[in-house]
Design brief:
The protein is an alpha+beta fold and 157 residues long. It is built from five helices and five strands; from the N terminus they run E-E-H-E-E-E-H-H-H-H. It has a five-stranded mixed sheet, with helices on both faces. A hairpin with a 2-residue loop joins strand 3 and strand 4. The N and C termini lie far apart (49 Å). The model has no long low-confidence stretch (mean pLDDT 96).
Length: 157
């Protein structure tokens, strides 16, 4: 076991990890931040998406030891108490959530997109979400949620 320090949601955590533990495993099991989901554990589904230095990444594909000195943000960092982030509000309002398993990854991918591009077109939205799989919604409402979140964050909604 190796002692590392991870900066997650603006807070430093000292945690003992094995060299082969994924960042997703450490976030969920060691830090008890359960919003980051484990789906395929092969980097293909996007359920474990977090932001690392502002970029959406599949945390199951990153070793925790390689996340040292990076700023990691999980879904838990978005809401303020019971007040949802505009992206989360948009997903609820657009009915973009069914089973909810993919939702944290979708929301984090959306946050990464909207931090770079405040008014993305539909193709840019689809491109940003292409590595996030959803088996329930058919993506139409998810794309609409991203459009609505964009408006909300620009103060137009």
């Amino acid at each position: 076991m190796e002692l590392i320090v991870l900066n997650v949601n603006g807070r430093n955590y000292e945690v003992r990890v094995k060299k082969d533990w994924s960042l997703a495993r450490v976030i969920r099991e060691e830090l008890q931040l359960k919003g980051t989901k484990l789906g395929c554990e092969k980097g293909a589904c996007g359920s474990c998406k977090v932001l690392m230095n502002g970029v959406a990444v599949n945390s199951c594909s990153i070793l925790a030891v390689n996340a040292v000195n990076k700023e990691i943000e999980t879904i838990e960092n978005l809401s303020q108490g019971s007040e949802l982030h505009p992206i989360q509000e948009a997903f609820v309002e657009a009915n973009a959530i069914q089973c909810g398993y993919c939702t944290p990854g979708m929301v984090m991918s959306t946050k990464a997109l909207l931090s770079k591009n405040q008014n993305p077109d539909e193709e840019q939205i689809k491109d940003a979400l292409k590595n996030n799989l959803c088996r329930c919604t058919g993506y139409v409402n998810i794309v609409e949620a991203v459009k609505l979140a964009s408006k909300k964050m620009r103060g137009e909604e």
